[in-house]
Amino acid sequence: MDKRSLSGPLTYYARPASLGSKIKFIAANFVSTHVTVSLSAVWRAILEWERRQRSRQALRSLSNHEIRDFCLDPMEAELEASKPFWRA
Q1: Quick one: pLDDT at residue 38?
Q2: Which of 2, 37, 54, 66 could pair with 62 as two cysteines, CB 3.0-4.6 Å apart?
């Protein structure tokens, strides 16, 4: 008769090799997911930095008259344009 009984709780008897391969698969999947998430976050940060740099370069290229159209203080616009790209 089989070690599993229909009247009692079912017990799964795994071979160590298959359990080890399952653990390796789970670990690899976990690492892969975290690396993908991390790379995605890095890529979003780089894209945001590029956007800031382009927008601050465009702000620098405006004349004082153009700056006054959307900003009351040209000094405030100069401060924004002089920030490094990594600062929000």
Answers
A1: 85
A2: 66
